[in-house]
Amino acid sequence: MTISPSFFVATHLIRKIQKLNSQKRKIVIPTWSRASVILPIMIGHTIAVYNGQQHIPIYITEQMVGHKLGEFSPTRYFRGHKKTDRKLTRQKLKKK
Fold first, then answer.
1. Does the predicted model carry a pTM greater than 0.85?
2. Main-chain dihedrals φ then ψ at residue 30, nearest 5 degrees
């Protein structure tokens, strides 16, 4: 006997997707639920996940099933380490 793992999916998101599947329509669905797990009924839909500033559209594929929506919309962007200006550091060393 296998026990299925428990997972969270926002009810409003499931309702919208089931409604669109019954109508056979594909539109962008905005959501703030980053913790929702991607289910097989979501395949082929585009879901716009909020990252704190804007909604990032994500097209759902088979490989994404089982992952969470928040994994595909990054909230932080790494802009690189601080760059030092070599001319300024040389001038400071000469003054000492």
1. no
2. -75, 140
Give the count of domains, the chain. 1
pLDDT tens digits, one per residue of 6-28: 789 999 999 999 999 999 999 99
53: pLDDT strictly greater than 90: yes
- pLDDT value at position 2? 47
CA angle 48, 50, 55 (to 5 degrees): 50
Pairing outcome for strands 46-50 and 55-59: antiparallel
Question: Torsion angle, CA of 83/88/90/94, rounded to 10 degrees?
Answer: -150
If you search the block for the tokens 């009810």, which residue do you land on?
A: 11
Residue 12 lies in a domain: no
- CATH of residue 38: 3.30.860.10
Which residue, 59, 60, 53, is CA-closest to 76?
53
